[in-house]
Structures are given as C-alpha cells and as structure tokens.
Write a structure and sequence with these properties.
The protein is an alpha+beta fold.
Length: 839
C-alpha cells in the first residue's frame, strides 16, 4: 500500500495533492494508535497504521453496517411522523454518518428528489485549500448551477456550512454534523480495539463497551455497533485497521414494502452519483421524468413519502475494517474503564471554516430539538402535591367537573322537548355572500362590522356573554333603532347588569330554557348554541361565545392594529340568506317561548320579563400565551358563482345522524378541531366509528384531530386516550393538543372533509352536545371555504407539534393558572368558566 486514497477513490485531487491527503490520514492513524494513556485509553496496540505496518497475507475485510436514520431522533420522538419531521428539520441531528436534503415541487409541496451524502468534511476542507475552483465546479454540478465562489469562501477560507450545504432543503454537498467526521471514525475504531475487564470479566456487550471506553454516543446506531464489531475482532487477537480507501460509505438501499403508482421497482430510482463501486459517497433518489408521478406519490407501508427520513429508514451505511494476523496478538486486556471523557467532546455546533481536526476525539452527541427522552408519566409524590395545589386555583365548577364522567347520561328530569320535523332542516341553496372567520384573528372585526351594519334587528341565542364591549355594541345598535332579542344560557355575576341594562333600552332578554341557566322550564341540559341574526338577512353560526377569549378585542381583520389580544381558537361563518336567517331567528324565538312557559308555536313574545342571573362567579385568571399565533388569518368573503349547498344541523333534531353520514363520506382527509372528545360515550364513539369505516374503505385517508389540553384529568383523560387507541389514532400522527404557547384554549368545533365540505358550529363531542343540548351548526359544501378553514387548521397543527408526552402537555396546562393579584403585572387573561365547562 503506497498511500491512503481519497474517500470513494475520488479523483478531484492530482497525484501530489493525493499524497498530501494521505499524509494527513496517516497522521490521524498514528494519533489514534497512541490514544490517551493518561486516561487509561492507550496506547491502542492492536490498532495499526497500514502505511507503517503493512497487513499480512491473511488480511480480511470486515464490513460493518448500520441504519442511516438517526437513532437518537427515533428514540426521543413520540410518533413516526414526528421523528421523520424532526430528522428532516436539521442536518445537525442526522448523526449516523449520513445526511440528506429534500427538494419539493413548489406548486404541490410533494417531494421530487432527496439527495444523500456521506462525504467527510475534512476532505472538502483539504480540496478547498488546494483547488477552490474545483470546489466551486463540484457544487455547481451536484447542488446548483447558481453557486458562486463567494457563497463558499469568506476571506479566502472555505466555509463547510455554507448556504448551499447547511439545510435540509437547499442542497447537501458533504457532511456537516459535528460528529460526522472521518477523524471521528478513525478514533472510534482505534479506541474499540482495547479489550476491557470489569471485575475480572471481559466486557463484550455493545452498550457496556461504549460506556466504558467512551468512544462515541451510546444512543446512535453506528457507534455502539462499530465498537462492538471491532472489539469482537480484537478478542480474536487480531491486529486491526481500516480498509483503504478510508471513509464512510453507502451500503444498501432496500425499499421493502414500497409501492409505486406504475408498479416500477423503486430500487431503480436510487442512483449513486459519486464514488467508486462498493465505496459510494453520494446518492440521489428521484423518479425519472416522464413517469407521471414524483417521489411524493410513492407509498411506503401504505403511507405516502412526505419526508426524506422515510427513505433513510431503508438505507444502511458502512465502514470497512481490516483484520490481519488473527490469533497472533499478545496485547492483554486493560483493567477498568477510561477515566474521563476526552476534552474534545463538544456539543453539536456548525463546523468552523476549513475545520480539519488535528486531534482525534470522540464523536460529539447530537443536540436534538424536543425532549431528550420520553419521560415516565408516573407522578412523583411531590408532583402530586404540586398538582393538587395548582388544581386548587381552578374555579370550583371546573374543579368539581374534572373527575366526573356521566358517560352516556342525558340530563335527568328534562321537560320533553317538542322537536321540529326533519324537513325543517333540509339543505338550502345559498346564492348570497358567505364570510368565514376565526378567533383570535378576525372574529371581533367581523362581528363588530355586522353589528354596526344592523338597521332593523339583531337576534342572539348564545351560551355565554361576558365581554362587556359586545354589550356596548348592542347598546349602540339599539340607539340607532335596531331591536335586540337576546336568549342567554349563563349570566355570571361578573356582569349582573347585562339583562338590566339591555332591557331598560327595550331589549327582549330571556334566560334560555335549560338546566344550566337555572330556568324551571328546562327543555335542554345546556342552551349551547351561538346564533346571531342581523336584519333578518345574515346569520352567524360559530363555535365561540361572547367572552373575552372567544371574541378577543382585536380590531384588525387578520392584522395587528395597536396591540394583539390573545384568545381561544374558535371559528364561524356568516351567511347572507333570508331563508336561513329566518330559520335560525325563528328557532331562537321558539326557544324563548319555551323558556317563558309558552306554547312554542305562538307568535314571538313581545314583552318578556328580564330574568335575573344569579350564578356563582365564572371569572378566573390564566397566563396569556407567550407567543402570538404563528400566522394570523384575515376573514374570507366569497360571492358564489353558483348556489352553495348549506345544511343547518341542529341538536337535538338532526345533528348526530347527519354528521355520522358526513364523516362516512370521507375519501382523502378529515380534519377535526374540537374542545374535547369524550371517549366511552356511545354517541361520540359512533362518530369515531364512522371515521373508522371511512378509513377501512380508503386506506390512504388522512385523519388529524386537535383538542384542548386544558384541565383534562382523571377518568375523562383516560377515556379519551383509550378511545384514540381503540380507533387507531396515534398521538402526534393523528391527534395533537392545541399549542398553549399560541392560544388560551381550543374552544373550536370544526370538521373539514376532503377539502370540499366544512362543518362549523357549537357542538362539542359529548353525549349532551350531540344529543340533548340546544346546539347549532352549518354544513357548507364549498371547496374555497373548506380550504380556508383547512389552512387555519394546518397552521394550528404545525404550531402544536408536540415536544412532550401527552401527560406532560396536559399537566403543564395547570401551570398557567393565576390569581387576581397577578392581573396588574400583565401577561394574564381573564377567562370564563363557560368556555371550559362540559356541555
């Protein structure tokens, strides 16, 4: 052997430059053999430099291979999708000597190409020193023809982590993760040749060896396995080195279980583009032009390829060891472990310009975004005590509810409700404008505009009304001559004068016919609808109450004007349709007559008595979200070019059966954003079962569910998680908790199916919400509106990516509870118990 050849037998260097490279590698080998005697880690006499001590005729090459997907990401992630996403997010977590970059179609977002590299950074730093123009030419050939010399060099010095070699989306020329170096490979192999004794017994286990010798990270695929295999050769009393050319290489791509649209073999789409046979250092996975599909259309175990990490799962890497003079070594095992970690161990940081390591240290641990490990969910005694202390801050009504679960029970002793016939809620064709909106982004701006437009009448049926500024808007409307009819379920004594003030101005105010309203004429457990009808022409149906968090005072429509007020995630629609406006205003009037003990089909009551609200205080204090939503959405107004099908869905009349059928029609996707889903309740599980049936008929159906983590404890939490498991919904992949960094609470009630139809309204997924409350929603068949709400959902889904276990997320929701004394210090919101109560 005359020299160490470049990795992959690359021919970028001339002969003299190759000799310079060989000298550098030889120096690393000598340093690796010397080891660190002062730390009980050297000399490493079974490791040798083949330029100094040529192997004998019995030399045998040993291939050591491992999976390319980073094991530390896998083991610290909560789901398959999360691990792929995290691995695709940063090259600095791709620590298995393999890094990749993903190219997507800008129009569809589908993956069109994934580039993999295992070229060591030291080689590129050496090449940059002797031939900068060659470096530029290679970047232009393999990454982008747009690369300029100044993109790669600063003040004449090569920057390994440059704009074309730093991300997972803008190209990958060579390795940059701090641990992915050739020097680390050589040092690891040399350190693993030391046989170690503990209590007189030789250590042979992979994890025990790496923890004793400290030659890498025990959490990786590569380091423990390389060490174990090398040490096994050492125990055969062989002399050991690395095979020429020394490098990290692709071993195999084995796409088992993959399906392409035209049944082509996906192996043919994997191409090596740099290196030599058996020693390839660069690969590209790409569907050839003309086949009519892209990488993103290929299925892996029934799932489309959305991440480069899905491909990395099927890639193995390798290094080649070389053993010689088997059975002849007289080097004795070393008693004890290495006495301390080497000083060269450092956190994973970007490579410094032209970084060629002069000394051989161990591989550095990767810095992973998110949890370092999935922690136990078993609470410690101290944690229990702290939890109870936090729970004591909850208002009594929520504290008492947290362990209760009434299952399928319908509220007892309700007066039999005279239901309206099914044909009353037939689908309508709407030709007028439809406006979509969301909280905290645009609900206040839209509602204020519509209330201010009222000239004749405003009819409201709502569960909670505690935002004082909305009362002022109604008073102004009444001064303009608009009549106001208000049916309210809860009226906490935080604003005891609401009915009094509005009634004095001539408003028709009635307490809802529900148990929760304290009305003796209780036909419903809760009157939980949110209906606003303006001038008999426009009807608003929404998930949000008129509380400060569901309709926060943000004057801008999807833009910040002055300061931004945080709030719940809620959504709604306003539909210009005299037919639908009449239907919902009549529904409120009918319920008002029931509330007053009058026959439901009489003409509307003219002078109802104001009913005093005497509930306990419903106000409490919570920490405001630490961040604004990642994106604010302006309202959307459409003027249909053709009539839009809109179906009023009302509890207790027609909601449950209609929604079950609606879910059953899904073919491609279902998005659900709900305050909660009460597992173990038959009515709820019928809806989950409908999703399961749709999945069975459409194996590629994507299901995503967002719920609130707020105050989800005890049996309700257990039953929710059991329902998710029973119906095959995985945490992170299929369901998430709404991010409390961006929102106060998830109070939404949204379903989007196939990006074509959207359901917006007031029904929570509980027996009472589905079967016995007064609730209202609209099912709208319009792709533009469905896409609007789907886009907001997708933003919420992305911002809610978990970095903790479900138990930790739910437990953390209590940490936001505050006292009234905290309010003046700022960063606190005033919350209404009505936004959280079970309904």
């Amino acid at each position: 052997m005359l020299r160490f050849d470049p990795p992959g037998d690359l021919d970028d260097l001339d002969d003299a430059q190759k000799q310079g490279w060989s000298a550098q590698v030889s120096a690393w080998f000598d340093a690796a053999r010397a080891g660190a005697p002062g730390e009980n880690d050297g000399p490493r006499l079974q490791f040798f430099n083949p330029l100094v001590d040529p192997p004998a005729g019995d030399a045998t090459v040993a291939t050591i291979a491992w999976n390319a997907f980073p094991r530390q990401v896998r083991s610290s992630s909560l789901s398959e999708v999360q691990r792929w996403r995290r691995a695709d997010a940063s090259r600095h977590v791709q620590d298995e000597y393999c890094e990749w970059s993903v190219s997507r179609d800008p129009a569809t977002g589908k993956i069109v190409r994934v580039t993999f590299t295992c070229e060591p950074p030291e080689y590129w730093s050496e090449l940059a020193l002797v031939n900068p123009e060659k470096v530029l030419a290679l970047y232009r050939q393999f990454v982008s023809p747009q690369v300029q010399l100044e993109d790669l060099f600063v003040a004449g010095t090569y920057v390994p982590e440059n704009r074309y070699n730093s991300t997972t989306t803008n190209g990958a020329m060579h390795l940059i993760q701090q641990a992915n170096t050739l020097a680390a490979e050589i040092g690891l192999a040399a350190a693993a040749t030391i046989r170690r004794l503990r209590d007189g017994q030789e250590i042979t286990d992979a994890q025990a060896l790496i923890r004793c010798s400290l030659y890498g990270s025990a959490g990786r695929n590569s380091d423990p396995f390389i060490g174990e295999q090398v040490n096994a050769l050492a125990r055969q009393r062989a002399d050991i080195t690395l095979n020429n050319p020394v490098g990290l290489y692709f071993h195999e791509f084995n796409p088992v279980g993959w399906t392409t649209p035209d049944n082509a073999d996906p192996r043919t789409f994997w191409n090596y583009v740099r290196g030599s046979e058996g020693h390839f250092v660069r690969a590209v996975f790409e569907v050839p032009a003309g086949r009519g599909y892209t990488v993103g259309d290929i299925m892996v175990a029934g799932r489309r390829i959305d991440f480069g990490g899905q491909i990395a799962d099927f890639v193995t890497m390798k290094l080649e060891g070389l053993a010689t003079r088997l059975g002849q070594s007289t080097v004795a095992p070393v008693a004890g472990c290495r006495v301390k970690p080497p000083s060269a161990v450092a956190a994973a940081v970007p490579l410094a310009p032209a970084a060629i390591p002069a000394a051989l240290g161990n591989r550095a641990p990767a810095t992973l975004p998110g949890p370092a490990a999935v922690r136990s969910s078993d609470p410690e005694p101290a944690a229990d005590a702290r939890m109870e202390a936090l729970l004591a801050r909850l208002p009594a009504v929520l504290r008492d509810e947290r362990e209760e679960d009434d299952g399928d029970a319908v509220p007892a002793a309700l007066i039999p409700y005279p239901r309206l016939p099914p044909e009353h809620f037939a689908t309508r064709s709407v030709s007028g404008r439809i406006m979509a909106f969301a909280s905290p982004d645009s609900t206040y701006a839209v509602t204020r505009k519509l209330i201010e437009s009222a000239r004749h009448s405003i009819v409201i049926g709502i569960y909670d009304f505690s935002a004082s500024y909305m009362k002022e808007h109604l008073k102004k409307a009444m001064r303009r001559g608009a009549s106001v009819s208000l049916m309210l379920d809860t009226n906490a004594d935080d604003d005891p004068n609401l009915f009094t003030e509005l009634s004095m101005l001539g408003a028709n105010c009635v307490k809802a016919p529900s148990q929760s309203a304290g009305n003796p004429n209780h036909y419903f457990g809760n009157a939980h609808e949110k209906i606003i009808v303006v001038d008999g022409e426009i009807v608003m149906i929404q998930s949000g109450n008129w509380s400060e968090n569901s309709i926060p005072f943000n004057e801008g429509d999807g833009v910040v004007v002055g300061s931004f007020e945080p709030g719940n995630r809620d959504m709604g629609v306003a539909v210009q349709s005299t037919e639908l406006a009449r239907l919902f205003s009549d529904l409120v009037a009918r319920d008002m007559r029931l509330a007053l003990g009058e026959p439901p089909d009489l003409p509307p009551a003219i002078v109802p008595a104001a009913v005093d609200g005497a509930a306990a205080s419903g106000m409490f204090f919570e920490a405001a979200p630490s961040e604004m939503p990642q994106r604010l959405f302006s309202s959307l107004t459409i003027t249909p070019s053709a009539p839009v099908a809109v179906t009023p869905l009302v509890t207790p009349e027609n909601f449950h059966g209609a929604v079950r059928s609606f879910l059953r029609t899904a073919r491609r996707s279902i998005r659900i954003e709900q305050q909660y889903i009460r597992g173990g309740q038959a009515a709820v599980e019928e809806l989950l079962g409908a999703i399961g049936e749709a999945r069975a008929d459409n194996p590629g159906l994507i299901v995503k569910i967002i719920v609130s983590p707020k105050y989800l404890f005890g049996e309700k939490k257990q039953k929710f998680e059991k329902a998710m498991r029973d119906f095959g919904f995985e945490f992170d992949e299929n369901y998430r908790y709404l991010s409390l960094r961006h929102f106060v609470h998830c109070h939404n009630k949204l379903v989007v199916v196939d990006d074509e139809k959207v359901l917006v309204g007031s029904q929570n997924w509980s027996t009472t919400g589905l079967m016995s409350n007064r609730e209202t929603s609209m099912l709208i068949e319009h792709a533009g509106l469905a896409a609007y709400f789907a886009e907001i959902f997708d933003s919420d889904w992305q911002s809610s990516e978990p970095v903790e276990t479900p138990d930790e997320i739910v437990a953390r929701s209590l940490e936001g509870l505050r006292n009234s004394a905290d309010f003046a210090a700022g960063g606190v919101v005033v919350s209404s118990t009505a936004d959280y109560r079970d309904t």
